[in-house]
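INTERNAL AUDIT FORM
Audit reference: QA-55
Scope: verify that the stored structure record matches its stored sequence.
Auditor: D.O.
Record contents follow.
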Amino acid sequence: PPARWFARCKEADATGQYAQAADFCSSFLKTAGKSAEKYESAQFFLANALDRLGLHHGAVEYYFQVANTRRTPELLPRAVRALEQLYLSRPIDEDMILRDLIGETDFGELPDELNDFVHYWQGLTNLFRGLDEWANERFTRLNRRGYYYYLAIYASGVRLLHADPVAQQGHRLPGELPR
């Protein structure tokens, strides 16, 4: 029965037996319907197990599902944090995960430490689409001492130079000191 598979999945995850956790979560997901109460939690545990086993692409897929459906609000920050950690540590599908999910989704309230990651990708997505004002609005929300703030300055500078290098002479980049 699905309830037993889920209990075994959680237990295996808690004890670091990630191959077993992945197997139990997979069994739960196959036997329980998508409307099952713990379905999204099982996806999260499966993503964690796959990540710990080095199967990062599979982990990204399941973290994406958890963050995209948002049926279990307490898992959303954990899934977004895991996606950020995977983004920072290895190549992932930026179009699907970062631009389509993070860049276009209103997540509501997230913990402060995740806001910069989300605002940066939302701003970058807007920048790629030529929505410079919306991009700047997202970029101004970034922590001025944070990693993503400097990425935003770089991205804005590249966009500015790409748009028209001669016409933009003398234009200040976000965060640039006045002359």
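Auditor finding: record pair retrieved intact. The chain is about 65% helix and 0% strand.
Action required: none
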